[in-house]
């Protein structure tokens, strides 16, 4: 049970949503955009999120788009994670999304909610970081399109009145070799330790990580080291750690030392799968 | 400053649950789980973790399993909700009994609901799919083997859905959802 009440709005257009936000905020309210709502509900119950009005964006048609348009895959922000496996247009996204939470929860959790949430895993962003995707963001001045790498630094940098509408990814990325692996300390359904996703473009391996630091990230400096083919796999993995952002997570799911141990082994596994056994 | 629930007026909503249209007064922030149990007397959906982890509160919404602790009741307007009470005498319920697929029984409604939802969507699921769907729910006092056996016995029997939820009351003009289950 959530201990506070709020107003509920379900706009049918982007403009209606952003106008609502402005009107509510100008009256001193604390509106919040709502998509799957799982984090708002669970953190609201713990009084770690507070709002006096939710603006549910699920009825805005643009947020429900899932398909190709002009050689781009358009991913609406209010799509549930489960749809990416039901209609698998983007295999890397499908593989990464199917490891988030559990099947039933993925029917409610949305890709936009995962990307914009407070939880530090936010694995849903990894495929988009690896594929040079753009984001379409709605705000008081309309919808703007930006390269994700320009507006993502540890988190998607949205102004208060803005919300994520869509992500756009070039179709050519759908065909590229990839790997995405989630590691847990216990069982298949335990909480995540870390996720590594990788994509091979023009012979060069790209890497993005979740659960290593308190935010997901892609590191081009680490990628340069991990692609230096003169070095053995393990040496490359360890050398790439010089460029890891800080801090390394150190919590009940795993100590920082354990996370780095698992990360090194996972990276080595990836290099073996992409480049073959070192002894051959 | 936080505003107490009493600051906001209750609203009256209609929900379609187990084929019946029911009317109830809610606060906008009320979870479907609480409305089912406290307002409508449908106590089959169980409060467990209240965090979306355990699945004891699972219901079926538009043929998909849904954790009712992760859903505002207001989001369920115009959606087709089935609770464990709507699966009385269903094949899956009988097979849970036949295979003794429970111990204390607290998690059982959730497992029955997710199993039934799976069979509604795929009458002949492969093992990987069965594991993926059942992994949404947690049992802490018995094993999962009996639950899987109950599910597989329904699959083998070829009567996957067994019983459609009772439909004793017509929708009486209630707005319908489109084919994707979204609001029109």
UniProtKB/TrEMBL annotation, chain A:
<dbReference type="InterPro" id="IPR002346">
    <property type="entry name" value="Mopterin_DH_FAD-bd"/>
</dbReference>
<dbReference type="InterPro" id="IPR036683">
    <property type="entry name" value="CO_DH_flav_C_dom_sf"/>
</dbReference>
<feature type="domain" description="FAD-binding PCMH-type">
    <location>
        <begin position="1"/>
        <end position="174"/>
    </location>
</feature>
<dbReference type="Pfam" id="PF00941">
    <property type="entry name" value="FAD_binding_5"/>
</dbReference>
<keyword id="KW-0560">Oxidoreductase</keyword>
<dbReference type="GO" id="GO:0071949">
    <property type="term" value="F:FAD binding"/>
</dbReference>
<dbReference type="InterPro" id="IPR016166">
    <property type="entry name" value="FAD-bd_PCMH"/>
</dbReference>
<protein>
    <submittedName>
        <fullName>Xanthine dehydrogenase</fullName>
    </submittedName>
</protein>
<dbReference type="InterPro" id="IPR005107">
    <property type="entry name" value="CO_DH_flav_C"/>
</dbReference>
<dbReference type="InterPro" id="IPR016167">
    <property type="entry name" value="FAD-bd_PCMH_sub1"/>
</dbReference>
<dbReference type="InterPro" id="IPR016169">
    <property type="entry name" value="FAD-bd_PCMH_sub2"/>
</dbReference>
<dbReference type="GO" id="GO:0016491">
    <property type="term" value="F:oxidoreductase activity"/>
</dbReference>
<dbReference type="InterPro" id="IPR051312">
    <property type="entry name" value="Diverse_Substr_Oxidored"/>
</dbReference>
<keyword id="KW-0274">FAD</keyword>
<dbReference type="InterPro" id="IPR036318">
    <property type="entry name" value="FAD-bd_PCMH-like_sf"/>
</dbReference>
<keyword id="KW-0285">Flavoprotein</keyword>
Automatic annotation (TrEMBL), chain B:
<dbReference type="InterPro" id="IPR006058">
    <property type="entry name" value="2Fe2S_fd_BS"/>
</dbReference>
<feature type="domain" description="2Fe-2S ferredoxin-type">
    <location>
        <begin position="11"/>
        <end position="87"/>
    </location>
</feature>
<keyword id="KW-0411">Iron-sulfur</keyword>
<dbReference type="InterPro" id="IPR012675">
    <property type="entry name" value="Beta-grasp_dom_sf"/>
</dbReference>
<dbReference type="GO" id="GO:0046872">
    <property type="term" value="F:metal ion binding"/>
</dbReference>
<keyword id="KW-0560">Oxidoreductase</keyword>
<dbReference type="InterPro" id="IPR036884">
    <property type="entry name" value="2Fe-2S-bd_dom_sf"/>
</dbReference>
<dbReference type="Pfam" id="PF01799">
    <property type="entry name" value="Fer2_2"/>
</dbReference>
<dbReference type="InterPro" id="IPR002888">
    <property type="entry name" value="2Fe-2S-bd"/>
</dbReference>
<dbReference type="InterPro" id="IPR001041">
    <property type="entry name" value="2Fe-2S_ferredoxin-type"/>
</dbReference>
<dbReference type="GO" id="GO:0051537">
    <property type="term" value="F:2 iron, 2 sulfur cluster binding"/>
</dbReference>
<dbReference type="InterPro" id="IPR036010">
    <property type="entry name" value="2Fe-2S_ferredoxin-like_sf"/>
</dbReference>
<dbReference type="GO" id="GO:0016491">
    <property type="term" value="F:oxidoreductase activity"/>
</dbReference>
<dbReference type="InterPro" id="IPR051452">
    <property type="entry name" value="Diverse_Oxidoreductases"/>
</dbReference>
<keyword id="KW-0479">Metal-binding</keyword>
<keyword id="KW-0001">2Fe-2S</keyword>
<keyword id="KW-0408">Iron</keyword>
<dbReference type="Pfam" id="PF00111">
    <property type="entry name" value="Fer2"/>
</dbReference>
<protein>
    <submittedName>
        <fullName>(2Fe-2S)-binding protein</fullName>
    </submittedName>
</protein>
């Amino acid at each position: 049970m959530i201990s506070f009440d709020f107003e509920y709005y379900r706009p049918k257009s982007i403009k209606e949503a952003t106008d609502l936000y402005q009107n509510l905020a100008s009256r001193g309210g604390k509106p919040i955009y709502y998509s799957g709502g799982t984090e708002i509900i669970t953190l609201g119950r713990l009084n770690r999120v507070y709002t006096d009005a939710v603006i549910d964006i699920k009825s805005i048609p643009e947020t429900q788009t899932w398909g190709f348009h002009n050689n781009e895959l358009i991913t609406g922000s209010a799509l549930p994670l489960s749809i990416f496996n039901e209609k698998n247009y983007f295999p890397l996204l499908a593989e990464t999304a199917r490891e988030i939470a559990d099947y039933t929860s993925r029917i409610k959790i949305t890709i936009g909610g995962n990307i914009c949430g407070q939880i530090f895993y936010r694995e849903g962003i990894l495929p988009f970081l690896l594929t040079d995707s753009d984001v379409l963001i709605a705000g008081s001045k309309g919808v703007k399109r930006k390269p994700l790498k320009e507006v993502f630094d540890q988190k998607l940098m949205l102004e208060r009145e803005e919300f994520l509408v869509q992500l756009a990814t070039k179709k050519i990325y759908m065909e590229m070799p990839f790997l995405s692996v989630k590691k847990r300390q216990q069982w298949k359904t335990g909480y995540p330790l870390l996720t590594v996703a990788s994509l091979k473009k023009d012979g060069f391996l790209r890497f993005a990580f979740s659960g290593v630091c308190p935010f997901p990230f892609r590191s081009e400096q680490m990628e340069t080291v991990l692609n230096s083919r003169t070095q053995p796999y393990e040496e490359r993995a360890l050398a790439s750690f010089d460029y890891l952002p800080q801090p390394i997570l150190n919590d009940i799911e795993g100590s920082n030392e354990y996370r780095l141990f698992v990360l090194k082994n996972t990276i080595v596994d990836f290099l073996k799968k992409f480049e073959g056994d070192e002894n051959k | 400053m936080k505003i107490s629930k009493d600051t906001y007026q209750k609203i009256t909503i209609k929900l379609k649950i187990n084929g019946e249209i029911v009317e109830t007064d809610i606060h906008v922030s009320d979870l479907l789980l609480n409305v089912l149990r406290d307002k409508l007397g449908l106590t089959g959906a169980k409060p467990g973790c209240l965090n979306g982890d355990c699945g004891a509160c699972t219901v079926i919404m538009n043929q998909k399993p849904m954790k009712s602790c992760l859903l505002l009741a207001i989001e369920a307007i115009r959606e087709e909700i089935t609770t464990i009470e709507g699966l009385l005498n269903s094949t899956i319920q009988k097979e849970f009994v036949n295979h003794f697929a429970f111990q204390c029984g607290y998690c059982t409604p959730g497992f029955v609901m997710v199993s039934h939802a799976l069979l509604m969507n795929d009458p002949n699921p492969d093992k990987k799919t069965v594991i993926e769907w059942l992994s949404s729910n947690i049992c802490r006092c018995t094993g999962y083997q009996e639950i899987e056996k109950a599910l597989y016995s329904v699959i083998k029997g070829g009567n996957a859905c067994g019983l459609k939820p009772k439909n004793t009351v017509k929708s009486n003009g209630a707005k319908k959802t489109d084919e994707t289950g979204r609001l029109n």
